[in-house]
Design brief:
The protein is mainly alpha-helical. It has 9 helices and 2 strands, in the order αααβαααααβα. Strands 1-2 form a two-stranded antiparallel ribbon.
């Protein structure tokens, strides 16, 4: 996954030296490259393991059902987690621009699915988690993939800096963790647990549930925080209490619990 991300960033930056691209176009190009490299990598590993590509085919065939389940959990639990904050005055919606919001939903979905949700889930919690789970145990598979997940961004930034330097492209110095390391580790650890809980639901192509949740949870955060400098969510939200920040974790934890309950229910049927 780290190689996919670094390839996407490096090659898109290289392309902008020859073709003028707006920020949206650059990120869409990154997403396409990341998805292509990730799928190629998974196909190569499956071939080396002597396995067929039917595992990917199953994920794609079941995606409408599994993806919808993951997305619904993310959206509904997101509404349940964040709505009270508006009623108690922690958050205030000062303006909603519908045109910007609809554009955001389309572009963010395309970029987020291709750049993060789909390639990350099929590599890390798809191929990686499944292989480790079959070889060892669910606990070990979850722990090892968590460590890999936490260091993906740092590894990707290192590869990006290295490849960019070799190609003569300006690049920022590599960093181990983007942002505050404690917040990063706590939030991504809980996010990983929720995604692996989704992954363990006894359904064909269950990794699709993780893909849907990945898209939904991050989209809710990006809408409320309006956190993409290159794409406005259309939501202007005034933050009146820092306690509201904890709702990001509440959203993730409640979703993990729901996935656990769904899995237990289906196993008992």
């Amino acid at each position: 996954m780290a190689l996919s991300l670094s390839a996407g960033v490096t090659l898109s930056n290289l392309a902008t030296q020859y073709v003028s691209l707006p920020d949206t176009g650059r990120f869409l190009l990154q997403a396409v490259i990341v998805l292509a490299v990730a799928l190629s990598g998974v196909s190569f590993v499956l071939h080396k393991q002597g396995k067929s590509l039917t595992e990917i085919d199953v994920v794609l065939q079941e995606l409408p059902k599994t993806f919808t389940l993951g997305l619904l959990v993310a959206v509904l639990i997101g509404i349940a987690s964040w709505t009270p904050a508006f009623f108690v005055g922690w958050l205030e919606l000062t303006q909603l621009r519908w045109n910007d919001f609809f554009i955001f939903l389309i572009v963010n979905t395309l970029v987020l699915v291709a750049y993060e949700a789909f390639p990350e889930e099929i590599t890390l919690r798809g191929l990686g988690w499944s292989s480790l789970n079959n070889a060892w145990s669910t606990r070990w598979a979850t722990t090892v993939t968590l460590v890999l997940f936490l260091f993906t961004a740092g590894t990707a930034s290192t590869f990006t800096w290295l490849f960019s330097s070799l190609l003569g492209i300006e690049a920022t110095a590599p960093t181990l963790f983007p942002g505050d390391p404690i917040i990063y580790v706590v939030q991504l650890s809980l996010f990983h647990i929720a995604l692996t809980q989704a992954r363990q639901i006894p359904m064909r192509g269950a990794v699709g549930i993780a893909i849907g949740f990945h898209l939904g949870q991050l989209s809710v955060v990006r809408i409320l925080f309006n956190s993409l400098p290159w794409l406005n969510s259309g939501w202007d939200v005034a933050w009146h209490s820092e306690w509201a920040l904890l709702l990001v974790l509440v959203h993730i934890i409640l979703s993990a619990l729901i996935f656990h309950l769904i899995a237990r229910r289906l196993r008992n049927i």
